[in-house]
Inverse folding.
């Protein structure tokens, strides 16, 4: 039954139906509503048995999840942005130990400058932490991905991060279906850990490994990710057969099979992109889109197959690697190696800047006209940048860029520089 | 010491059982280490003997580990965890911080741990222990207890936020800090538990104020008490029975508990490997390391100093303080350290009614190395 729900509340309910036994919570915008929702469910006795642990930091949140999962409990937490970075060390540890923790990331920009709005710089910064990273295009998919995430995590003994765009999804109300308990129970069996701290069968978890075996242990993590590439589509298929809708998988093509230009993206902008593709197709343009649902592991083969017929691929990214450019683009270029496909990186929607249909239409016009460089920043206010660079070249104690730019655009009262 | 501070135990000579065939209890025995029971365990009733003297002890950390000769931490961890295992009927899970104890006990693919054991990171052992406890609670397991442990770096420095969080939430975890007063695993650097004047690789014995600065550092047991957790205790590896009794008592409580054990490190302290226990004893007897226990945030028992020794006797045995004795020496620094000990003595009431003449002879023999501990 569909209900009008906030994305975060729907995710909280979906997670509750996965029967987590330990939920660790530390507030950070825009994820907070999720753990608040779970707190209510636990305290009202609707989610039992479950221990809700209010911790003192995200680092502790992940550490409590590590202990809980190693002791055989299904463990969950949620975070975003600075919080995700603050738990960095524990994230690598959880994956290295092979602990199937599930975590929501309400994607948000990383400071400085501090910014609470959406982009995907947080999850992208943790690209190499060994977690599976799934990206939801919309809130229904966010709900469904959490249920799939526990299945995937526990089958592989790998942690899974479900990424949903902050505010755009976490705070958006829309009609959503949260699968009922019986359905979820039938899809997700109780947690049967590969390793557990048990006095009846004492086990050492987290031993030191030197050069004699470190490569092999790390390779095994890679091997499990390769296995995930097979498992994730199977889980999505089973989900569809049980729940009657498609969610997740490795990637989702839209009108891309015969398109000369294919726009690849992750997360909620896919919805906007689909609308623009429809508009442009009506005008006879050969354009399509692909949503990447799984960024780690990276579906090299599947992406190559999906994009090999295109002349141009535009990788529309909500994060970037300073000094290089696209993060996803690097993997896309690797996937298309040897094929005559041009790849343009477009960085868009940083720190909550809306990615509008109009901007996308203009972008695709420019691409068609051959005016798009290898790296393009959508809606960048070049004049503001030029003025700030000039100001700083004036020498002296010119102050931070952030304040300079804000003054320039009139967002703060102008004062002496 | 648990329930029976030294001064409540009659002490006199070095006699065995007084009545033939009737082993005496602790209260009746008379020898130097009464109250510590390190000597003469076989003279005690079975129920009063140490866990370590029990052939059926847990051997939580067993042979084959790579600790240095004379390692106080290996000794302390073995004492503490065996006592915890004994108290919990063998059903203990341990969460360990990164550090010497973790490294020397688990050289891949071997492990010295005979209990379920997890090492995650340097800073998060208390939180990992919380997670284990939460999992057990969710599963309705009341038979298994949780111990977190780490060195002083992992506890009072980098792990302090997680430790404080575990305390304030009331999580059912016994956390044990093995304090060797520095980052020994990384090559002897200063921690917030390094004492003033001590030389470490980051507080070199150079300049006008050689060694670690005065007026720094934190007192983790007192901070633990400020959380008003059910049980806090300090101990040293010199007093086996006391340490075991404290761990055993801690296991009687639920909720967060903290035991801070002084564990000399021959490598980092520059002490003789055979003197680990003696040096731990001198730390207590000088007043530099107060041994006490506290319930619900209030000190309830103190291990009295048997016969106060000048701090110099403790310091001279350690190369980390050698700069205090070179050339003309640093009587000014010694004076400050002695004042530090006196302050502890006054603050914790470490001196009993009077020195005990009967023990002086033996203690002197111990201090000069003429008798075994």
């Amino acid at each position: 039954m569909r209900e009008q729900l906030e994305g975060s509340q729907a995710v909280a309910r979906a997670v509750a139906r996965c029967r987590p036994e330990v939920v660790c919570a530390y507030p950070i915008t825009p994820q907070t509503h999720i753990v608040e929702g779970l707190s209510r469910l636990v305290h009202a006795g609707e989610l039992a048995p479950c221990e809700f642990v209010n911790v003192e930091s995200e680092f502790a949140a992940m550490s409590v999840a590590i202990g809980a999962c190693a002791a055989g409990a299904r463990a969950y937490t949620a975070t975003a942005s600075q919080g995700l970075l603050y738990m960095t060390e524990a994230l690598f540890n959880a994956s290295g130990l092979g602990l199937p923790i599930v975590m929501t990331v309400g994607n948000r920009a990383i400071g400085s400058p501090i910014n609470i709005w959406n982009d995907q710089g947080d999850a992208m910064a943790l690209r190499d932490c060994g977690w599976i990273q799934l990206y939801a295009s919309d809130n229904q998919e966010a709900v469904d991905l959490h249920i799939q995430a526990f299945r995937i995590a526990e089958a592989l003994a790998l942690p899974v991060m479900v990424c949903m765009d902050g505010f755009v999804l976490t705070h958006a109300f829309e009609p959503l279906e949260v699968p009922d308990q019986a359905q979820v129970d039938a899809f997700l069996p109780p947690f049967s850990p590969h390793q557990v701290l048990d006095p009846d069968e004492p086990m050492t978890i987290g031993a030191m490994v030197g050069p004699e075996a470190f490569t092999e242990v790390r390779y095994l993590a890679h091997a499990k990710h390769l296995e995930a590439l097979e498992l994730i589509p199977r889980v999505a298929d089973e989900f569809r057969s049980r729940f009657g809708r498609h969610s997740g998988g490795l990637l989702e093509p839209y009108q891309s099979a015969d398109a000369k230009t294919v726009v690849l993206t992750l997360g909620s902008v896919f919805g906007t992109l689909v609308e623009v593709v429809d508009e442009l197709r009506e005008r006879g343009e050969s354009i399509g889109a692909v949503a990447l649902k799984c960024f780690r592991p990276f579906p090299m083969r599947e992406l190559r197959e999906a994009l090999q017929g295109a002349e141009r691929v535009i990788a529309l990214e909500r994060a970037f690697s300073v000094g290089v450019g696209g993060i996803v683009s690097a993997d896309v270029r690797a996937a298309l190696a040897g094929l005559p496909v041009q790849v343009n990186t477009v960085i868009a929607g940083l720190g909550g800047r809306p990615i509008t249909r109009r901007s996308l239409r203009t972008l695709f016009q420019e691409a068609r006209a051959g005016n798009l460089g290898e790296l393009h920043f959508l809606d960048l206010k070049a004049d503001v940048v030029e003025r700030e660079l000039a100001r700083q070249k004036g020498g002296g104690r010119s102050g931070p860029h952030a304040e300079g730019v804000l003054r320039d655009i009139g967002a703060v009262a102008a004062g002496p520089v | 010491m648990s329930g029976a501070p030294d001064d409540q135990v009659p002490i006199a000579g070095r006699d065995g059982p007084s009545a033939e065939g009737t082993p005496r209890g602790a209260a009746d025995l008379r020898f130097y280490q009464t109250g510590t029971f390190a000597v003469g365990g076989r003279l005690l009733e079975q129920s009063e003997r140490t866990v370590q003297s029990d052939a059926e002890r847990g051997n939580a950390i067993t042979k084959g580990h790579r600790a240095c000769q004379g390692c106080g931490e290996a000794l302390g961890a073995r004492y503490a965890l065996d006592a915890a295992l004994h108290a919990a009927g063998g059903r203990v899970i341990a969460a360990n911080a990164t550090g010497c104890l973790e490294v020397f006990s688990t050289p891949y693919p071997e492990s010295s741990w005979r209990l379920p054991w997890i090492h995650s990171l340097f800073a998060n052992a208390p939180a990992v222990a919380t997670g284990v406890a939460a999992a057990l609670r969710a599963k309705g397991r009341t038979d298994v207890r949780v111990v977190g442990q780490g060195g002083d770096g992992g506890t009072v420095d980098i792990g302090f936020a997680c430790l404080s969080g575990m305390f304030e939430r009331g999580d059912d975890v016994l956390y044990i800090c093995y304090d060797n007063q520095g980052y020994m695993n990384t090559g002897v650097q200063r921690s917030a538990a390094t004492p003033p004047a001590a030389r470490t690789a980051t507080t070199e014995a150079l300049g006008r104020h050689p060694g670690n600065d005065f007026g720094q550092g934190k007192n983790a047991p007192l901070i633990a008490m400020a959380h008003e957790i059910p049980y806090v205790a300090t101990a040293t590896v010199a007093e086996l029975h006391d340490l075991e009794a404290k761990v055993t008592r801690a296991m009687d409580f639920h909720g967060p508990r903290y035991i801070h054990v002084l564990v000399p490190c021959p490598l980092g302290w520059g002490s003789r490997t055979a003197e680990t226990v003696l040096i731990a004893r001198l730390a207590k007897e000088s007043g530099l390391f107060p041994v006490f226990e506290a319930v619900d945030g209030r000190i309830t028992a103190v291990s009295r100093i048997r016969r106060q020794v000048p701090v110099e006797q403790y310091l001279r045995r350690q190369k980390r303080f050698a700069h205090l004795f070179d050339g003309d020496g640093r009587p000014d620094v010694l004076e400050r350290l002695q004042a530090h000990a006196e302050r502890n003595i006054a603050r914790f009431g470490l001196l009993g009614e009077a020195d005990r003449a009967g023990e002086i002879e033996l203690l002197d023999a111990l201090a000069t190395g003429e008798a075994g501990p």
Observations:
- Residues 57-367 of chain B form a domain with the Rossmann fold fold (CATH 3.40.50.970).
